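We read letters as residues; the integers encode the fold. Take this protein.
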Amino acid sequence: SPRAMLEETRNVVRLSRTYKNVAGGFFDDVLLSLRDGKMTPGEFEQMYRTLKENQRLKLWTVVYTHELDAEHWAPIQPFIDVVNLWVWNAEDLVHLDRDLERARSIFSGKIINLGCYLRDYPGHRGVPMHLLKLQWEKVVKYLGSGAISGYSILGATLIDDHLEQARWVRDFIAAN
């Protein structure tokens, strides 16, 4: 609920004053929350402004590539510090160049972090290796060009279920 999220945001701010490694808050499934009426743009802004009681904190917001419609993001776009961009359907990784450009256009001037799955949730399997390799080659390219500031990997709980993908990613990162 927005009330609970605001209270958790206050907790993050409080903890950040003691623990300097607390860097911000992370909001998953933002558009779903807005579409389902679980949160209004005004409540999102209130959460952002509460987080900014500590100016060094950043609000990370999950954005899925299938949600890249500027109109949907317009009411809350000013209150996003970091776009955590994810490709939900592994088959859509072939469109990552296009989708990253769309995200950079919609969220101009924002930090973009690329989310990298080990699991293809819609396919109920690990990300197919040819698509996983494609994505990680693009991660290196995007980091080198400054198109993204970093990446996230989801996640530790999936390693045992997708050992081939996890080992490949580990080895790729070590080599690059």
Observations:
- The beta strands are 24-27, 58-64, 82-86, 111-117, 119-120, 125-126, 150-154.
- The first helix runs from residue 2 to 18.
- The radius of gyration is 17 Å.
